[in-house]
Design goal:
Length: about 130
């Protein structure tokens, strides 16, 4: 037998789940667009760098914002990718290129990874 308090809690959880699905749908459109715009800014001025930067950013944004996997795992993946891309693009380590690319990718990864909680909270407050 379900008590009225439990029914309220289940209704609130169902409402929260609905809001999270709505945020997921929004982010599934916004994340690739942001990844594309950012890869144009922070890629190392060659085609393969642009394509792979877009792929890495899209996957890392999706993993942290929608799947909610640990943020620090993807920060390490981005660090290693930027290091490899920098060395392959310039032939040697270029610190200004690395800091531009990694800094931009890391900041936006943090915005989407940490900001997801705030998006969910905002959606809950919006309807109440």
């Amino acid at each position: 037998m379900v008590s009225p308090e439990q029914k309220e809690i289940f209704d609130a959880l169902e409402q929260q789940r609905g809001h999270q699905k709505q945020v997921d749908r929004i982010l599934k459109v916004v994340l690739p667009i942001c990844a594309f715009l950012l890869c144009v800014i922070c890629a190392n001025l060659n085609v393969w760098s642009t394509i792979l930067t877009f792929a890495v950013m899209w996957v890392s944004f999706y993993a942290t914002a929608i799947k909610r996997w640990p943020l620090w795992h993807w920060a390490i993946v981005i660090f290693v990718y930027c290091l490899i891309d920098n060395i392959l693009s310039y032939g040697a380590f270029n610190s200004s290129g690395f800091s531009r690319q990694f800094g931009t990718m890391f900041i936006f990864l943090g915005i989407f990874g940490v900001g997801r909680r705030y998006f969910d909270r905002w959606m809950m407050k919006k309807t109440i």
